[in-house]
Specification:
By secondary structure, the protein is an alpha/beta fold. It has a domain of 170 residues: Vaccinia Virus protein VP39 (Rossmann fold). The protein has 10 helices and 7 strands. A 7-stranded mixed beta sheet has the order 3-2-1-4-5-7-6, sandwiched between helices. Helix 5 links the parallel strand 4 and strand 5. Helix 1 packs across helix 8, helix 6 packs across helix 10 and helix 8 crosses helix 10. It is globular. The two termini are 27 Å apart. Bound molecules: benzoic acid (BEZ).
Length: 258
């Protein structure tokens, strides 16, 4: 569930993530329901983070392997008793090893989707399913626009396309079909999400790779400016923040001839 699945730099700290972003796994019930894990099935959790949601699949009786590129997150997942490996999502090593691949809140960090989807296809048995939820088109748009503006003001011109990939349903359907999948469902779901920890904490944890474009000593001030810019759209009169999340949730099946 972290963005670390393809990141070369480990921006992730399991304790900090749990404190500020536990809602990410807490809100994972619908994608677990779409996966419908069965006892005895072999399931790969791609970008498993600290394993909080992976645990739900284990409790359903599945044999689950988690992978994430963050060593800190994998250590936290193993501490829960989950079988987990540090692995780059663009270089999955599995061949016909899983009945299903599952992913929550991780694919949007994997900006080069093609090698990731090819690896997922290789990892599945023919007819296996790929069920995932990620940020979709329009995800955190107010936050992203504020970040782009503040970074530009700091001399960093960026669209943040190198940090996050939030595809439209049509784009993700095409990418899955190119990798040999038949798409069974694809939904774009606005999901305004309360951020109890506040926007600056959200930015420190979940926008760390974007803010890493700035020298460390300028990041705190940048977070404060981003929060100021986003506040009219995302903060209510009582000071409560709601992030403008948009989820893309899908189920796809590997073609039996693949
Ligand atoms: C997301 O889960 O959609 C997300 C996480 C971190 C930054 C941006 C979006």
């Amino acid at each position: 569930m972290t963005g670390a699945a393809t990141a070369r730099t480990d921006h992730w700290n399991a304790q900090g993530y749990a404190g500020a972003a536990r809602f990410v796994s807490d809100l994972g019930a619908p994608v677990v329901a779409l996966l419908d894990p069965r006892p005895g099935e072999r399931i790969l959790d791609l970008g498993c983070g600290d394993g909080a949601l992976t645990q739900r699949l284990v409790e359903a009786g599945a044999h689950v392997t988690g992978v994430d590129a963050s060593p800190d997150m994998i250590a936290a997942a193993r501490a829960r008793g989950i079988e987990a490996e540090v692995m780059d999502a663009a270089e999955l090593t599995y061949e016909r090893a899983f009945d299903a691949v599952f992913s929550n809140a991780a694919l949007h960090w994997m900006v080069d989707a093609e090698p990731v989807l090819a690896g997922v296809a290789r990892a599945l048995v023919p007819g296996g399913r790929f069920v995932a939820e990620q940020g979709g088109m329009g995800n955190v748009a107010a936050i992203r626009t504020a970040l782009i503006a503040v970074l530009a003001d700091e001399g960093v011109e960026t669209t943040l396309h190198d940090v996050w990939r939030f595809p439209s349903p049509a784009e993700q359907t095409a990418a899955l079909e190119s990798a040999g999948f038949v798409v069974e469902s694809m939904e774009l779901i606005p999901r305004p999400t309360p951020v109890a920890a506040g926007m600056e904490t959200w930015l420190a944890v979940l926008a760390a790779p974007a803010l890493a474009k700035l020298p460390e000593e300028r990041r705190a001030a940048a977070r404060a400016r981003v929060a100021d810019l986003a506040a009219p759209a995302l903060r209510d009169g009582a000071g409560n923040w709601t992030a403008d999340y948009v989820r893309l949730r899908f189920r796809a099946r590997l073609e039996t001839a693949a």
